[in-house]
Amino acid sequence: MGGQPLFILDEDAQRTHGKDAQSSNISAGKAVSEAVRTTLGPRGMDKMLVSDSGDVVITNDGATILSEMDIEHPAAQMIVEVAQTQEDEVGDGTTTASVLAGELLAKAEDLLDDDVHPTTIVEGYHEAAGLAQEAIEAEVLDVELDDDTLVEVAESSMTGKGTGDVDAERLAEVIVDAVRHAKTDNGVLRDNIEVHTQTGAATSATELVEGVIIDDTPVHDNMPHSVEDADIAVLDAELDVKESNVDAQYNVTNVDQLNAALDAEEQELSGYAEAVVDSGADVVFVTDDVADRVASQLAKAGVLAVESVSSGTAKDIVETTGAKRVGSVEDLDSDALGFAESVGVEKHGDEEVTFIQGGAAAEKVTVFARGSTEHVVDEIERALNDALDVTIAALDAGGVVPGAGATEIAAADHIRSKAASIEGRKQLAVEAFADAIDVLPRTLAENTGLDAIDALVDLRSRHESEGIAGVISEGQTGVVDNPIEYGILDPAAVKREAVDSATEAATMIVRIDDVISSS
């Protein structure tokens, strides 16, 4: 080579390797984890997130916080992905997964300082994660998942979240009713449950609607705003004068020709209205525009028409009412009509919404969530969606386990009991994993006002003597007690997913010893 240097990377590229890369990545992951740690549990605090444009989000939902944060560090983004994976898979436990991933990184950092090889840490963590899954499975309660139990699951997921002027139990009952409506022999159909938010009332006004709620309203003021026993049509068509696809000009030379053109146009529009009326439809939902003259004629005939309905909304209406979605008025007949017990337009606050209830197909239900402000209803919507997801997870994905940190205490104890049989330095990583899991009940204790160390000692002692112990929020502080007696239950699926996703993220970050970034 004649002593000439060999350039592999661009001269503007930046490279961090060895312990510097590991330290940077671990620090970034820990920082993201710490950002959501104080939100954990029933006494968790909220975060206010302000965007560049001034939009404000107030929440203690881990997935929302991390998705709204402007995070650039690639390792930190992996912790965000942990939360997103948790949210996608089971709908809750995002803060748990993020906090656990951060603590696994913190323990790994100590092991690296003690010259434990990253591969050994990774192997130990994966073995410990398997032991944790064994412990979670052993904690699954042998109980019937009746409505009372499911209400406890839903309520546990919402405790500590912004639920306005009503306690979580009231909302949990609405959630369980919704889940029962959507339950089939093949499981709960999550897509058949919607959450529709509306400001203008207290949270206690939240209710379950057997049907769908849409923001679209009648196209004409003189149309009926309430229709009982409604025959419903859904049209993928424009009820307006057809425009020619040919760029042509028409030369009108006298009044008779103009009148003939206007008569033809009027006849076309009248034909649309007559076709709808003749089909027997009381309500018609149109995905395109409805001409003013068509709307006027429909109003005179007592037909409620809604225009510019989105494709997704039209699909919901079809699934609720059993209507057939047709592409033209010529295809509209009695066989294409669906049915709903009522279609009504109601004003809530300054806005009107349309309720379609008691449909013949009856596949859709909607949780109509109320709140006094946009910030309140946004947080209630997040809480309700989490509650829906965990209730479904409990039914469809493996039952429930004790909450309040009890399952984590059991998992840590099981891992420690097995660690002594593991040879070599891998044992250190397994024990470190158990210590990392302790961060969850310890954080719960901190957030309820207890001394974290004393609480952890009490939890371990109570678990050893009675087999179960959790941190219960009571008044302005907390106590160590049996969470089952307080109705604090979590889906086993949430715990399993949190362990898996946190372990995967932490081990992936630990294995990185070189970071190369180009300009």
Automatic annotation (TrEMBL):
Transmembrane segments: none
Chain intervals for the UniProt region annotation (Disordered): 9-30
MF GO annotations: ATP binding; ATP hydrolysis activity; ATP-dependent protein folding chaperone; unfolded protein binding
Keywords: ATP-binding, Chaperone, Nucleotide-binding
Lipid biosynthesis is among the record's keywords: no
Family in the record: Belongs to the TCP-1 chaperonin family.
NCBIfam families: thermosome_alpha, thermosome_beta
Name under which the protein is recorded: Thermosome subunit
Taxonomic source organism: Haloarcula salinisoli
